[in-house]
Amino acid sequence: MRKTIWNFGCAVLALLSTSSVCAQITDPSELYGTYEFTADVEITEDGQPYADRFASKCEVTIGAHDFRDLTITGLAGGTDVQTANLKNGNIEIFDYNGSSYYLWGEPVLYGNENGESPWGGNQWTIIYTVDPATKNITVADFTAITVNKSWSTDKILAKFTNCKLTFKEAAVITANDVSGDYHFKGEGTMDGSTFPTEFDVTLTTKDETNRAYSVTLDYGEGFKTLELEASFDGSKLTIPFKDAYLNETQTLAICEFQAPSKLEGSIVFNITPSGTAFSLTSGMSISRAEKSGDEVKYSYEQWYMSGAMSKPVADADNFGGTYHVKTNNFYNLLTMGGGTDPYAYEYPEEFDIIVEKDEMTGGYYLTEFMGPEMYANNYGATDCTVEGNTLKIPAGLLLDRVHMSEDRMTFVYHVLYNGVGENSGTIDLTVNEDGTCTMGDFFIYRDTKTYDANWNATSEYSRAAFYGELTVTRADATGIADVKSAAAAPRISVAGGVIYVTGEPTPVKVYNAAGALVFSGTTSAVTGLHKGMYIVKAGDASVKVVL
Asked: For residues 173 and 32, what is the distance between their CA atoms, to the nearest angstrom?
């Protein structure tokens, strides 16, 4: 019904005036749904071994993303997910090949129309053009390629031209009612500023769809209370603002994160997995205006690189701390019955788990499991869910990865599986009323990947170890032992093409997707990088980011 009304409205406008056109789409959720992809495909001789991966006609899904506006799944038969933002009514692609770096699976990447790799030193922007009347999308020409070890183009496998996404069916968007009183705490705030780093937010749904909200921002005594509107797509809360002044003299106002003179834009939050809090993904700033004759000068009064708003929660920390785990029923499944482990890997029968509570959201994060490598291998802490007195640790975590051959072409990955040997579900850590702890059984699986000269991989999966009858001792019930406090530990965030590192000053290293070091130094903000994927290391933190 929503689509029909929209198209009918555009048709009426077209009849009224030949110069009238439908307004561009500004809400990403308007594009959520299924599409039919069609294209002319020319497969080269080098691409023949991969021909079954490419599709000239297939179904594509457009949906939501955690910090971008959109995801595009299934383009041209691709198995990974592109991410994109809505810009001036059209789609600007950011993550061309998805999180695996290979849109069609290893070793096949998305390249631009000239067959250039997005990682090999080339920088380009891909725009998909949206017709607001029909929601049909014209996709820029592109190629499928392989790359060499420097991630520059090796071979062009296929060329895609005359590419279109024809709108078929809108997604059914369900949004829970997130009305309530929230408290926002900012992170990465401006040094020396006396402007509040915290404020109260009230959300009130406007109808039964829970898609539109009234928003109140209250900075406390001495500031005007702002009344704004917001849209919610079930995961992303978008609060547009224009001339949102915080005082009667109109010298303080919300501004665009990186432009103190621009008093119009949007504040964007994403709902957390717990459904009780929102994290700030757009960044946010406060501008001060000062008149000098006829000229107005703008400067920053405060900024929030990141932060979160949450409903009031109890102060009790039920799960945060360090847990020492010992197995009383351990099996090295590779050496049982006289077998041998070709890599002679020693699986520990005792190890620590570290759980951290996020004081802003009330959620819990796993930062260590059988060694600190888990944090880096999973691009940061892993979100856990809570059911009663049980913390549920997701299966599928990459615990460790090791180069195991002299030519560095064989890698061994150790992956956490649940107690029945599945890469799904959870491993449950329960804190009992008497303070004792119990934990469910789990397996470790080994994925041995061997790469050939063209970086084609073959994988061999095997059960490596079983951990049962676990004894769990909570070593630190008040916080995390030997880990810096939340205020001191480095936190890595991205906004407006800038990588921000907050916390105590610490050396920062940034690597591009090819593994080349592109920045090294002690800083709180890394600027001047081209669009693409990077690995950021700050202290013990290691996070994958996309600019």
From this structure: 8
